[in-house]
Design goal:
It is built from 12 helices and 22 strands. The protein is α/β, with parallel strands linked by helices and about 450 residues long. α1 runs parallel beside α8, α3 packs antiparallel against α4 and α3 crosses α6.
Length: about 450
């Protein structure tokens, strides 16, 4: 750290990763500034995982209230009001944004509410034309939803706009087969919208275990969600009444009230001046970095979704911590990307960690998969036929548990603890020796034989 620059660290982007890197670096004595052109908190807090999870909670009440009747509750006069949920979620987002601002203020991090562009290895130009210098620059600007180049694509919306809908659409088409498409399909279906998921490929959630994702597809179809596979978009037309006519290749047209693009996210590097100063980018605009988050320009680092390594908020936070410890804390730290747990907050939710069965088949000399396919106790009394499925993948040579995958109520909550076991390299024998906690769904993890 030196006084020859205006700041020791200048961060572009005040999302989860940028905030963590900023406050930890400042705690180590660095003079830190953060430029944020929109709102402090980033995608996750403002228009991503946090408000989306609140919508998931709200959607779950549709089934919970229906099931409650079987448990003796009189809930005959229920009515859902979208503006109430929408406004309460937005209010919670504002509260969290205030907390993030307070965190930066308490750590004496200067927040600059402007867009910033890198104009030199140690220089940043702000939107108002002023220039500042920094010993180290950190790019943490995240990613944005990708909208394909299809005629009429502008008539659709992205996940950024979902949280501000004036009214709920009656007919929703969701483009994509990933976690965002799967989550919003469940949300809108529970809000009594007719949902059609359109995917240009032949499967959903291709990075998840095949048996688990097939179970989600089966359950979704039983619930009444429609799917169209191998169906690229040709064009979208907006009719006089505001509705949409969606043309697909090899399919009948779909009439809809809303089209949601959920076909991926691209790193937010356009117009940042990175290539002009020598920072190497990948084919989709991602900043290429080494194991220490350092770019091809030694003074410029990048973390989070803008690097397109693992687009998960906890990963960005861990990268921000590692950056701060390494560069300003005198404690060289690297992120371990093995066995990162992930979840899809679909209806029902999916969670997984480690190798899928197909990965084990390709990578291990021999493996064994243990499966528990059961009907949760709550579903039995509720008269709901929906079944949960848990799977454990074992390396037969070492007996080590190398993967756990599940679909069912509270699967992400259960998997967080189970992921510790996979990360620690525990064996199937150690699982078997653990006494079950009964009656729970999670006990299935230690009862598979």
């Amino acid at each position: 750290m030196t006084t020859s620059y205006d700041y020791d660290l200048f961060v572009l982007g005040a999302g989860s990763g940028g905030v963590r890197a900023s406050r930890v670096s400042a705690a180590h004595g660095a003079r830190v500034a953060v430029a944020e052109e929109y709102r402090v908190g980033g995608t996750c807090v403002i228009r991503g995982c946090v408000p989306k999870k609140l919508l998931v909670y709200g959607a779950h009440f549709a089934e919970d209230l229906q099931d409650a009747r079987r448990f003796g509750w009189d809930v005959d006069h229920c009515r859902f009001d979208w503006p109430t949920l929408r406004d309460n979620v937005l209010f919670e987002v504002e509260r969290l944004e205030g907390i993030y601002n307070d965190i930066l203020e308490r750590n004496e991090v200067e927040v600059i509410p402007q867009r910033a562009r890198i104009s030199g290895p140690h220089e940043v130009t702000l939107e108002d034309g002023s220039k500042v210098t920094a010993g180290t620059i950190l790019v943490a600007v995240g990613a944005r939803p990708f909208v394909p180049d299809v005629p009429g694509a502008e008539h659709g919306i992205t996940s950024n706009e979902v949280f501000h809908l004036e009214t709920l659409p009656k007919r929703v088409v969701i483009a994509g087969g990933g976690y965002i498409a799967s989550e919003f399909a469940g949300i809108f279906h529970q809000f009594s919208c007719h949902v059609t998921v359109v995917n240009r490929g032949d499967r959903i959630l291709r990075h998840y275990d095949e048996q688990i994702r097939d179970r989600l597809l089966t359950i979704s179809l039983m619930k009444g969600i429609d799917f169209k596979f191998n169906a690229p978009f040709e064009k979208i037309e907006k009719k006089e009444d505001g509705s949409l006519r969606i043309q697909l290749q090899g399919q009948d047209p779909i009439e809809a009230d809303m089209l949601l693009w959920a076909v991926g996210r691209n790193p937010n590097t356009e117009g940042l001046g990175l290539e002009e100063v020598g920072v190497k980018l990948g084919k989709n605009g991602a900043v290429l970095v080494d194991d220490d988050n350092q770019s091809s320009v030694p003074s410029i680092y990048a973390i989070g979704d803008v690097t397109d390594r693992v687009q998960l908020t906890p990963v960005a936070i861990r990268e921000g911590q590692a950056f701060a410890e390494t560069v300003f804390g005198g404690n060289p730290t690297r992120v371990d990307y093995e066995n990162i747990p992930s979840a899809v907050f679909s209806h029902p939710p999916i969670a997984g960690v480690g190798m899928t069965e197909s990965q084990a088949r390709d990578k291990l000399g021999s493996y064994k998969a243990y499966v528990s396919d059961f009907r949760p106790m709550k579903n039995v009394l509720a008269g709901r036929n929906e079944r949960a499925l848990y799977k454990i993948i074992i390396d037969e040579e070492t007996d080590q548990v190398v993967g756990i995958h599940m679909i069912g109520p509270d699967a992400p909550e259960i998997l967080q603890a189970a992921a510790i076991a996979v990360k620690a390299g525990l064996t199937k024998k150690q699982f078997d020796e653990t006494i079950a906690l009964h009656p729970t769904m999670s006990e299935e993890l230690v009862l598979m034989r």
